[in-house]
Amino acid sequence: MNLTPKEIVEYLDQYVISQKDAKKTIALALRTRYRRMQLNDELKNEITPKNILMIGSTGVGKTEISRRLAKMMKVPFIKVEASKYTEVGFVGRDVESMIRDLVVNSISIVKAEQEEANKEKIDNYIINKITEKLLPPLPAGASQSKKDDYQRLLQVMEKRVESGEMDDKVIELELEKLNVEFNDTNLPPEMAKVQESFSKVFAQINKEDNKKEMTVKDAKILLRQEASVKLLDMTRVNAEALRRAENGGIIFLDEIDKIALSEKSQGRNDPSKEGVQRDLLPIVEGSSVSTKYGTINTDHILFIAAGAFHVSKPSDLIPELQGRFPLRVELESLTEDTLYQILTQTHNSLLKQYEALLGVEGMQLTFEDEAVKAIAKLAHRANENAEDIGARRLHTVLERILEDISFHADEYKDKEFIVTAELVHEKLDEAVEDEDLSRYIL
Ligand SMILES: Nc1ncnc2c1ncn2[C@@H]1O[C@H](COP(=O)(O)OP(=O)(O)OP(=O)(O)O)[C@@H](O)[C@H]1O
Ligand SMILES: [Mg+2]
User: Fold this and answer.
1) Engineered SS bond to 260: which of 72, 127, 174, 316, CB 3.0-4.6 Å?
2) Fold classification of 5-106+243-330 (topology level)
3) Distance from C-alpha of 220 to C-alpha of 240, rounded to nearest angstrom
4) Residue 174: enclosing H or E segment and its boundaries?
5) Ligand 1 atom closest to the CA of 67, numbered from 1
6) pLDDT tens for residues 108-145?
7) What's the CA gap between 365 and 419, in Å, rounded?
Protein backbone atom coordinates (compact mmCIF):
# COMPACT_ATOMS: atom_id res chain seq x y z
CA MET A 1 0.00 0.00 0.00
CA ASN A 2 1.53 3.26 -0.97
CA LEU A 3 -0.49 5.73 1.01
CA THR A 4 1.33 8.85 2.02
CA PRO A 5 1.66 9.62 5.73
CA LYS A 6 -0.97 12.32 5.32
CA GLU A 7 -3.41 9.88 3.79
CA ILE A 8 -2.86 7.36 6.54
CA VAL A 9 -3.48 10.01 9.19
CA GLU A 10 -6.56 11.16 7.33
CA TYR A 11 -7.91 7.66 7.35
CA LEU A 12 -7.22 7.21 11.04
CA ASP A 13 -8.85 10.56 11.76
CA GLN A 14 -12.18 9.08 10.80
CA TYR A 15 -12.01 6.67 13.70
CA VAL A 16 -9.65 8.01 16.30
CA ILE A 17 -9.95 11.53 17.66
CA SER A 18 -6.85 13.53 18.63
CA GLN A 19 -3.69 11.45 19.37
CA LYS A 20 -1.94 13.34 16.61
CA ASP A 21 1.57 12.30 17.61
CA ALA A 22 0.79 8.61 17.66
CA LYS A 23 -0.89 8.72 14.29
CA LYS A 24 1.92 10.71 12.79
CA THR A 25 4.67 8.45 14.08
CA ILE A 26 2.94 5.33 12.87
CA ALA A 27 2.09 6.79 9.50
CA LEU A 28 5.69 7.82 9.05
CA ALA A 29 6.97 4.39 10.04
CA LEU A 30 4.71 2.81 7.46
CA ARG A 31 5.84 5.18 4.77
CA THR A 32 9.45 4.48 5.58
CA ARG A 33 8.82 0.80 4.86
CA TYR A 34 7.45 1.76 1.51
CA ARG A 35 10.38 4.01 0.74
CA ARG A 36 12.81 1.30 1.75
CA MET A 37 11.20 -1.19 -0.59
CA GLN A 38 11.98 1.10 -3.53
CA LEU A 39 15.73 1.04 -2.86
CA ASN A 40 18.36 -1.29 -4.23
CA ASP A 41 19.10 -4.44 -2.29
CA GLU A 42 22.32 -3.26 -0.74
CA LEU A 43 20.86 -0.15 0.85
CA LYS A 44 17.60 -1.87 1.56
CA ASN A 45 19.22 -4.38 3.83
CA GLU A 46 20.93 -1.68 5.82
CA ILE A 47 17.71 -0.03 6.80
CA THR A 48 15.95 -1.66 9.67
CA PRO A 49 12.66 -0.35 10.99
CA LYS A 50 12.52 1.77 14.09
CA ASN A 51 10.09 0.08 16.39
CA ILE A 52 7.50 2.13 18.20
CA LEU A 53 6.36 2.17 21.79
CA MET A 54 2.94 3.72 22.39
CA ILE A 55 2.30 4.82 25.91
CA GLY A 56 -1.06 5.98 27.09
CA SER A 57 -3.51 5.26 29.82
CA THR A 58 -6.38 2.90 29.33
CA GLY A 59 -9.10 3.65 26.81
CA VAL A 60 -7.41 6.42 24.87
CA GLY A 61 -7.20 4.66 21.53
CA LYS A 62 -4.05 2.55 21.44
CA THR A 63 -5.72 -0.64 20.37
CA GLU A 64 -8.20 1.28 18.25
CA ILE A 65 -5.42 2.80 16.15
CA SER A 66 -3.95 -0.60 15.46
CA ARG A 67 -7.30 -2.19 14.79
CA ARG A 68 -8.04 0.42 12.15
CA LEU A 69 -4.61 0.11 10.61
CA ALA A 70 -5.06 -3.63 10.38
CA LYS A 71 -8.28 -3.15 8.48
CA MET A 72 -6.86 -0.64 6.10
CA MET A 73 -3.42 -1.99 5.38
CA LYS A 74 -2.96 -4.73 2.89
CA VAL A 75 0.29 -5.72 4.54
CA PRO A 76 0.68 -8.72 6.82
CA PHE A 77 -0.41 -7.47 10.19
CA ILE A 78 -1.26 -9.15 13.44
CA LYS A 79 -2.12 -7.88 16.87
CA VAL A 80 -1.08 -9.98 19.81
CA GLU A 81 -1.18 -9.56 23.56
CA ALA A 82 2.26 -9.74 25.08
CA SER A 83 0.73 -11.13 28.25
CA LYS A 84 -0.39 -14.33 26.61
CA TYR A 85 3.08 -15.63 25.93
CA THR A 86 5.19 -17.74 28.21
CA GLU A 87 8.89 -18.26 28.40
CA VAL A 88 10.27 -21.10 26.30
CA GLY A 89 10.07 -24.26 28.31
CA PHE A 90 6.93 -23.22 30.11
CA VAL A 91 3.53 -24.47 29.06
CA GLY A 92 1.85 -22.02 26.71
CA ARG A 93 2.57 -20.14 23.54
CA ASP A 94 6.16 -19.21 22.96
CA VAL A 95 6.91 -15.85 21.41
CA GLU A 96 8.09 -17.30 18.13
CA SER A 97 4.55 -18.34 17.42
CA MET A 98 3.70 -14.69 16.74
CA ILE A 99 5.99 -14.82 13.71
CA ARG A 100 4.23 -17.96 12.53
CA ASP A 101 0.89 -16.22 12.97
CA LEU A 102 2.18 -13.35 10.88
CA VAL A 103 3.14 -15.73 8.09
CA VAL A 104 -0.28 -17.35 8.14
CA ASN A 105 -1.85 -13.92 7.92
CA SER A 106 0.41 -13.09 5.01
CA ILE A 107 -0.55 -16.28 3.24
CA SER A 108 -4.22 -15.50 3.50
CA ILE A 109 -3.62 -12.07 1.97
CA VAL A 110 -1.61 -13.43 -0.95
CA LYS A 111 -4.01 -16.30 -1.43
CA ALA A 112 -6.98 -13.96 -1.57
CA GLU A 113 -5.19 -11.87 -4.17
CA GLN A 114 -4.41 -14.92 -6.25
CA GLU A 115 -7.97 -16.12 -5.97
CA GLU A 116 -9.14 -12.77 -7.21
CA ALA A 117 -6.69 -12.87 -10.11
CA ASN A 118 -7.79 -16.39 -11.03
CA LYS A 119 -11.43 -15.81 -10.34
CA GLU A 120 -12.62 -16.88 -13.75
CA LYS A 121 -10.67 -20.14 -13.71
CA ILE A 122 -11.92 -20.96 -10.25
CA ASP A 123 -15.51 -20.12 -11.10
CA ASN A 124 -15.34 -22.30 -14.20
CA TYR A 125 -13.93 -25.19 -12.24
CA ILE A 126 -16.79 -24.98 -9.76
CA ILE A 127 -19.49 -24.67 -12.39
CA ASN A 128 -18.11 -27.54 -14.46
CA LYS A 129 -17.94 -29.83 -11.47
CA ILE A 130 -21.51 -29.12 -10.49
CA THR A 131 -22.86 -29.31 -14.01
CA GLU A 132 -21.23 -32.71 -14.39
CA LYS A 133 -23.20 -33.92 -11.42
CA LEU A 134 -26.48 -32.54 -12.69
CA LEU A 135 -26.06 -33.91 -16.22
CA PRO A 136 -24.65 -37.43 -16.21
CA PRO A 137 -22.35 -37.98 -19.20
CA LEU A 138 -23.58 -39.67 -22.36
CA PRO A 139 -22.90 -43.36 -22.73
CA ALA A 140 -19.99 -44.18 -25.02
CA GLY A 141 -20.96 -44.59 -28.66
CA ALA A 142 -23.76 -42.07 -28.65
CA SER A 143 -24.64 -40.73 -32.06
CA GLN A 144 -23.33 -37.40 -33.27
CA SER A 145 -26.71 -35.73 -33.05
CA LYS A 146 -27.07 -36.94 -29.45
CA LYS A 147 -23.67 -35.49 -28.72
CA ASP A 148 -24.66 -32.14 -30.22
CA ASP A 149 -27.82 -32.07 -28.16
CA TYR A 150 -25.83 -32.89 -25.10
CA GLN A 151 -23.43 -30.05 -25.74
CA ARG A 152 -26.29 -27.61 -26.00
CA LEU A 153 -27.86 -28.92 -22.86
CA LEU A 154 -24.56 -28.64 -21.07
CA GLN A 155 -24.29 -24.98 -21.95
CA VAL A 156 -27.80 -24.25 -20.80
CA MET A 157 -27.15 -26.08 -17.55
CA GLU A 158 -23.91 -24.22 -16.94
CA LYS A 159 -25.77 -20.95 -17.28
CA ARG A 160 -28.40 -22.09 -14.85
CA VAL A 161 -25.85 -23.22 -12.30
CA GLU A 162 -24.02 -19.96 -12.64
CA SER A 163 -27.10 -17.81 -12.25
CA GLY A 164 -28.08 -19.54 -9.04
CA GLU A 165 -31.24 -21.05 -10.48
CA MET A 166 -30.13 -24.52 -9.42
CA ASP A 167 -28.98 -23.51 -5.94
CA ASP A 168 -31.62 -25.54 -4.14
CA LYS A 169 -31.04 -28.77 -6.05
CA VAL A 170 -29.33 -31.53 -4.11
CA ILE A 171 -26.32 -33.29 -5.58
CA GLU A 172 -23.89 -35.90 -4.36
CA LEU A 173 -20.35 -34.69 -4.37
CA GLU A 174 -17.07 -36.20 -3.36
CA LEU A 175 -14.65 -33.58 -2.23
CA GLU A 176 -11.06 -34.32 -2.94
CA LYS A 177 -9.45 -33.10 0.20
CA LEU A 178 -11.62 -31.93 2.97
CA ASN A 179 -9.19 -31.32 5.79
CA VAL A 180 -7.16 -28.91 3.76
CA GLU A 181 -5.19 -27.46 6.58
CA PHE A 182 -5.00 -27.41 10.31
CA ASN A 183 -2.96 -24.30 10.50
CA ASP A 184 -2.30 -24.61 14.18
CA THR A 185 0.50 -22.13 14.18
CA ASN A 186 1.29 -22.74 17.79
CA LEU A 187 3.21 -25.82 16.74
CA PRO A 188 6.85 -25.57 15.84
CA PRO A 189 7.44 -26.73 12.25
CA GLU A 190 8.71 -30.20 13.19
CA MET A 191 5.50 -30.90 15.05
CA ALA A 192 3.43 -29.36 12.30
CA LYS A 193 4.99 -31.82 9.84
CA VAL A 194 4.03 -34.75 12.03
CA GLN A 195 0.54 -33.40 12.32
CA GLU A 196 0.36 -32.95 8.59
CA SER A 197 1.30 -36.54 7.84
CA PHE A 198 -1.30 -37.70 10.31
CA SER A 199 -3.97 -35.69 8.63
CA LYS A 200 -2.89 -37.10 5.27
CA VAL A 201 -3.35 -40.63 6.55
CA PHE A 202 -6.73 -39.75 7.89
CA ALA A 203 -7.70 -38.08 4.66
CA GLN A 204 -6.93 -41.36 2.91
CA ILE A 205 -9.11 -43.31 5.31
CA ASN A 206 -11.84 -40.77 5.02
CA LYS A 207 -11.89 -40.73 1.28
CA GLU A 208 -14.93 -42.97 1.07
CA ASP A 209 -16.80 -40.85 3.54
CA ASN A 210 -16.17 -37.75 1.54
CA LYS A 211 -19.14 -38.46 -0.66
CA LYS A 212 -21.82 -36.17 0.64
CA GLU A 213 -25.22 -34.97 -0.38
CA MET A 214 -25.56 -31.25 -0.42
CA THR A 215 -27.30 -28.42 -2.17
CA VAL A 216 -25.70 -26.80 -5.16
CA LYS A 217 -25.40 -23.67 -3.08
CA ASP A 218 -23.26 -25.39 -0.46
CA ALA A 219 -21.30 -27.23 -3.12
CA LYS A 220 -20.27 -23.91 -4.60
CA ILE A 221 -18.74 -22.88 -1.29
CA LEU A 222 -16.98 -26.17 -0.63
CA LEU A 223 -15.69 -26.52 -4.16
CA ARG A 224 -14.16 -23.08 -3.99
CA GLN A 225 -11.65 -24.35 -1.45
CA GLU A 226 -10.85 -27.36 -3.54
CA ALA A 227 -10.52 -25.21 -6.63
CA SER A 228 -8.07 -22.81 -5.07
CA VAL A 229 -5.91 -25.65 -3.74
CA LYS A 230 -5.90 -27.23 -7.18
CA LEU A 231 -5.56 -24.19 -9.38
CA LEU A 232 -3.30 -21.94 -7.38
CA ASP A 233 0.37 -22.59 -7.17
CA MET A 234 0.56 -22.79 -3.41
CA THR A 235 4.35 -23.04 -3.36
CA ARG A 236 4.49 -19.69 -5.04
CA VAL A 237 1.83 -18.26 -2.79
CA ASN A 238 3.79 -19.40 0.26
CA ALA A 239 7.05 -18.00 -1.04
CA GLU A 240 5.50 -14.65 -1.85
CA ALA A 241 3.78 -14.61 1.55
CA LEU A 242 7.05 -15.24 3.33
CA ARG A 243 8.72 -12.48 1.39
CA ARG A 244 5.99 -10.01 2.24
CA ALA A 245 5.88 -10.91 5.90
CA GLU A 246 9.63 -10.47 6.02
CA ASN A 247 9.71 -7.07 4.37
CA GLY A 248 6.38 -5.51 5.18
CA GLY A 249 5.06 -7.37 8.20
CA ILE A 250 3.84 -5.47 11.23
CA ILE A 251 3.32 -6.96 14.66
CA PHE A 252 1.33 -4.99 17.16
CA LEU A 253 2.38 -6.07 20.62
CA ASP A 254 -0.39 -4.95 22.90
CA GLU A 255 -0.28 -4.94 26.70
CA ILE A 256 3.50 -4.83 26.74
CA ASP A 257 3.35 -3.22 30.19
CA LYS A 258 1.90 -6.44 31.53
CA ILE A 259 5.21 -8.20 31.11
CA ALA A 260 7.23 -5.43 32.73
CA LEU A 261 8.46 -6.04 36.24
CA SER A 262 7.54 -3.12 38.40
CA GLU A 263 9.21 -2.49 41.70
CA LYS A 264 5.92 -1.86 43.39
CA SER A 265 4.50 -5.24 42.59
CA GLN A 266 7.71 -7.16 42.84
CA GLY A 267 6.34 -9.74 45.21
CA ARG A 268 3.53 -10.76 42.90
CA ASN A 269 5.60 -10.95 39.78
CA ASP A 270 5.41 -13.96 37.62
CA PRO A 271 8.96 -15.22 37.13
CA SER A 272 8.33 -15.96 33.49
CA LYS A 273 7.67 -12.30 32.61
CA GLU A 274 11.32 -11.49 32.38
CA GLY A 275 11.79 -14.68 30.41
CA VAL A 276 9.23 -13.55 27.89
CA GLN A 277 11.03 -10.24 27.54
CA ARG A 278 14.30 -12.08 26.94
CA ASP A 279 12.66 -14.34 24.40
CA LEU A 280 11.36 -11.25 22.62
CA LEU A 281 14.80 -9.72 22.22
CA PRO A 282 16.12 -11.80 19.33
CA ILE A 283 12.83 -11.62 17.50
CA VAL A 284 12.57 -7.86 17.73
CA GLU A 285 16.24 -7.42 16.96
CA GLY A 286 16.14 -9.75 13.99
CA SER A 287 16.61 -13.48 13.87
CA SER A 288 15.49 -16.45 11.87
CA VAL A 289 12.34 -18.27 12.81
CA SER A 290 11.40 -21.48 11.10
CA THR A 291 7.82 -21.98 10.13
CA LYS A 292 5.96 -24.68 8.33
CA TYR A 293 6.27 -22.63 5.17
CA GLY A 294 9.95 -21.88 5.36
CA THR A 295 12.37 -19.83 7.37
CA ILE A 296 11.64 -16.19 7.92
CA ASN A 297 14.01 -13.49 8.96
CA THR A 298 12.57 -10.96 11.39
CA ASP A 299 15.06 -8.12 10.73
CA HIS A 300 12.60 -5.94 8.87
CA ILE A 301 9.38 -6.70 10.66
CA LEU A 302 8.03 -3.58 12.31
CA PHE A 303 6.99 -3.92 15.93
CA ILE A 304 4.58 -1.52 17.53
CA ALA A 305 4.28 -2.10 21.24
CA ALA A 306 1.61 -0.49 23.36
CA GLY A 307 0.84 -0.32 27.00
CA ALA A 308 -0.87 1.78 29.62
CA PHE A 309 2.10 1.60 32.00
CA HIS A 310 -0.06 2.39 35.00
CA VAL A 311 1.63 0.13 37.48
CA SER A 312 4.91 -0.24 35.69
CA LYS A 313 6.94 2.20 33.62
CA PRO A 314 8.72 1.71 30.31
CA SER A 315 11.93 1.71 32.31
CA ASP A 316 10.72 -1.41 34.10
CA LEU A 317 11.23 -3.36 30.92
CA ILE A 318 14.64 -4.92 30.69
CA PRO A 319 17.02 -2.36 29.20
CA GLU A 320 17.79 -4.40 26.11
CA LEU A 321 14.12 -4.47 25.22
CA GLN A 322 13.63 -0.77 25.91
CA GLY A 323 16.44 -0.03 23.51
CA ARG A 324 14.73 -1.93 20.76
CA PHE A 325 11.77 0.45 20.79
CA PRO A 326 13.47 3.76 20.06
CA LEU A 327 10.40 5.69 18.96
CA ARG A 328 8.20 6.66 21.87
CA VAL A 329 4.82 8.25 21.51
CA GLU A 330 2.56 9.28 24.27
CA LEU A 331 -1.17 9.32 23.85
CA GLU A 332 -3.02 12.11 25.54
CA SER A 333 -5.72 11.66 28.12
CA LEU A 334 -9.11 12.48 26.76
CA THR A 335 -10.56 15.88 27.50
CA GLU A 336 -14.23 16.78 27.62
CA ASP A 337 -13.94 18.18 24.15
CA THR A 338 -12.30 15.05 22.78
CA LEU A 339 -15.02 12.93 24.31
CA TYR A 340 -17.61 15.11 22.61
CA GLN A 341 -15.87 14.65 19.29
CA ILE A 342 -15.61 10.91 19.79
CA LEU A 343 -19.37 10.85 20.22
CA THR A 344 -20.17 13.03 17.28
CA GLN A 345 -17.43 12.76 14.71
CA THR A 346 -16.26 9.19 14.49
CA HIS A 347 -17.43 6.84 11.83
CA ASN A 348 -19.94 4.48 13.46
CA SER A 349 -19.79 6.37 16.72
CA LEU A 350 -21.51 5.02 19.80
CA LEU A 351 -24.48 7.33 19.26
CA LYS A 352 -24.95 6.02 15.74
CA GLN A 353 -24.72 2.48 17.06
CA TYR A 354 -27.48 3.04 19.58
CA GLU A 355 -29.63 4.80 17.02
CA ALA A 356 -29.25 1.88 14.65
CA LEU A 357 -29.90 -0.73 17.32
CA LEU A 358 -33.10 0.90 18.50
CA GLY A 359 -34.04 1.61 14.91
CA VAL A 360 -34.47 -2.14 14.56
CA GLU A 361 -37.37 -1.84 17.00
CA GLY A 362 -38.90 0.85 14.87
CA MET A 363 -37.94 3.55 17.34
CA GLN A 364 -36.29 6.74 16.24
CA LEU A 365 -33.70 7.78 18.78
CA THR A 366 -32.35 11.30 18.58
CA PHE A 367 -29.74 13.01 20.73
CA GLU A 368 -30.03 16.74 21.27
CA ASP A 369 -26.72 18.46 20.91
CA GLU A 370 -27.02 19.79 24.45
CA ALA A 371 -27.49 16.24 25.66
CA VAL A 372 -24.35 15.05 23.90
CA LYS A 373 -22.41 17.91 25.47
CA ALA A 374 -23.73 16.92 28.86
CA ILE A 375 -22.75 13.31 28.29
CA ALA A 376 -19.19 14.32 27.41
CA LYS A 377 -19.00 16.59 30.40
CA LEU A 378 -20.28 14.03 32.87
CA ALA A 379 -18.16 11.24 31.41
CA HIS A 380 -15.14 13.45 31.83
CA ARG A 381 -16.14 14.30 35.38
CA ALA A 382 -16.57 10.63 36.20
CA ASN A 383 -13.11 9.92 34.81
CA GLU A 384 -11.71 12.58 37.11
CA ASN A 385 -13.59 11.48 40.18
CA ALA A 386 -13.08 7.77 39.86
CA GLU A 387 -10.60 5.94 37.65
CA ASP A 388 -9.73 7.43 34.28
CA ILE A 389 -10.90 4.77 31.86
CA GLY A 390 -10.85 7.04 28.84
CA ALA A 391 -13.45 6.65 26.13
CA ARG A 392 -14.66 3.41 27.65
CA ARG A 393 -16.45 5.65 30.15
CA LEU A 394 -18.77 6.66 27.36
CA HIS A 395 -20.00 3.10 27.09
CA THR A 396 -20.95 2.86 30.74
CA VAL A 397 -22.47 6.31 30.79
CA LEU A 398 -24.58 5.78 27.70
CA GLU A 399 -25.66 2.40 28.90
CA ARG A 400 -26.93 4.01 32.08
CA ILE A 401 -28.83 6.69 30.23
CA LEU A 402 -30.41 4.37 27.73
CA GLU A 403 -31.00 1.24 29.76
CA ASP A 404 -34.66 1.96 30.55
CA ILE A 405 -35.44 3.31 27.13
CA SER A 406 -33.87 0.31 25.53
CA PHE A 407 -35.92 -1.99 27.71
CA HIS A 408 -39.18 -0.26 26.83
CA ALA A 409 -38.32 0.22 23.17
CA ASP A 410 -41.36 -1.70 21.99
CA GLU A 411 -43.59 1.05 23.36
CA TYR A 412 -41.92 3.54 21.05
CA LYS A 413 -42.55 1.74 17.80
CA ASP A 414 -42.87 4.33 15.02
CA LYS A 415 -42.24 7.09 17.52
CA GLU A 416 -39.36 9.40 18.13
CA PHE A 417 -37.51 9.52 21.41
CA ILE A 418 -35.39 12.56 22.06
CA VAL A 419 -32.57 12.33 24.55
CA THR A 420 -32.44 15.73 26.20
CA ALA A 421 -29.89 17.31 28.48
CA GLU A 422 -32.42 17.09 31.31
CA LEU A 423 -32.69 13.34 30.88
CA VAL A 424 -28.91 12.99 30.90
CA HIS A 425 -28.61 14.97 34.11
CA GLU A 426 -31.47 13.13 35.71
CA LYS A 427 -29.86 9.77 35.02
CA LEU A 428 -26.29 10.70 35.81
CA ASP A 429 -25.87 13.61 38.18
CA GLU A 430 -26.16 11.65 41.35
CA ALA A 431 -23.91 8.84 40.21
CA VAL A 432 -21.21 11.17 38.92
CA GLU A 433 -21.06 13.44 41.95
CA ASP A 434 -21.06 10.66 44.47
CA GLU A 435 -17.63 9.12 44.32
CA ASP A 436 -18.67 5.79 45.75
CA LEU A 437 -21.62 5.50 43.45
CA SER A 438 -19.58 6.30 40.39
CA ARG A 439 -17.05 3.63 41.32
CA TYR A 440 -19.78 1.05 41.16
CA ILE A 441 -22.20 2.08 38.51
CA LEU A 442 -20.28 4.06 36.00
N1 LIG B 1 -9.12 8.88 20.70
C2 LIG B 1 -10.19 8.10 20.47
N3 LIG B 1 -11.02 8.34 19.44
C4 LIG B 1 -12.08 7.55 19.20
N5 LIG B 1 -12.43 6.50 19.94
C6 LIG B 1 -11.65 6.18 20.98
C7 LIG B 1 -10.49 6.97 21.29
N8 LIG B 1 -9.91 6.42 22.37
C9 LIG B 1 -10.65 5.37 22.69
N10 LIG B 1 -11.70 5.21 21.87
C11 LIG B 1 -12.73 4.16 22.01
O12 LIG B 1 -12.66 3.62 23.31
C13 LIG B 1 -12.62 2.21 23.32
C14 LIG B 1 -11.35 1.71 23.96
O15 LIG B 1 -10.22 2.16 23.26
P16 LIG B 1 -8.93 1.27 23.02
O17 LIG B 1 -9.31 -0.16 22.92
O18 LIG B 1 -8.16 1.83 21.91
O19 LIG B 1 -8.17 1.50 24.39
P20 LIG B 1 -6.64 1.25 24.74
O21 LIG B 1 -5.95 2.56 24.63
O22 LIG B 1 -6.10 0.14 23.93
O23 LIG B 1 -6.74 0.86 26.27
P24 LIG B 1 -6.06 -0.35 27.11
O25 LIG B 1 -4.77 0.17 27.60
O26 LIG B 1 -7.03 -0.58 28.22
O27 LIG B 1 -5.93 -1.52 26.20
C28 LIG B 1 -12.77 1.79 21.89
O29 LIG B 1 -14.11 1.44 21.68
C30 LIG B 1 -12.42 3.02 21.08
O31 LIG B 1 -13.22 3.08 19.92
MG1 LIG C 1 -5.75 -1.90 24.36
Assistant:
1) 316
2) Rossmann fold (3.40.50)
3) 28
4) strand 170-174
5) 18
6) 999 999 999 999 999 999 999 999 888 888 888 888 88
7) 7
